[in-house]
Design brief:
The protein is mainly alpha-helical. It has 2 domains: about 50 residues, Arc Repressor Mutant, subunit A, CATH 1.10.10; about 130 residues, Tetracycline Repressor, domain 2 (Orthogonal Bundle). It has 9 helices and no strands.
Length: about 200
Amino acid sequence: MPARPTPRRAKRKTYHHGSLRETLVATALELLDAGGREAVNVRETARRAGVSPGAPFRHFPDRAALLAALTSAIGAEFRAFSEDAISHAGANPLRQFRAMGLAYIRYAILHPRRFSLLHAETCTDPKALALFTRDADAVALIARAQREGLIRAGPPEAVHLAAQALTYGLARMIVDGHLLREGAEALAEQVLDVFGRGLAPH
């Protein structure tokens, strides 16, 4: 009888050098959404991605590096989310400013663990936090609204800080369970409208 051909081993799925990093970040994001920041580590990310335990270390030498990459990816996602909301707010700078604040809260409602990671990882880095909170963009919108007579005069930075404290407080209360997520967005709209009326010129 002719010898049976030796079965070939299935080739293990491999990743190109450029795509492994993206795969690992996407996998880490899944871990974050499922179990929070504590669930994200290099070994489990490698296992879920189907690569060897040592493969991620070419890109992420430790957990801190993986978390930093994850934070950067989430920050880019949030910025796109915010820009999309602003693009639908029309040309009025006050409406754009409101849309920016509402997008911040809406993102926290939709992605509470991503929101928490962003703040945890950027709170000690003023430059990173300013990029996340879009300080320069917000202050520019406030100054423009003042020039157009839509809100009262005053330091734009102070107005932004007040708005930032309000939106962060609401978002944090929702994420931490102090406010129910059901109806939270409608409540946020009401609160932002009250704040906006307080800025109206005399």
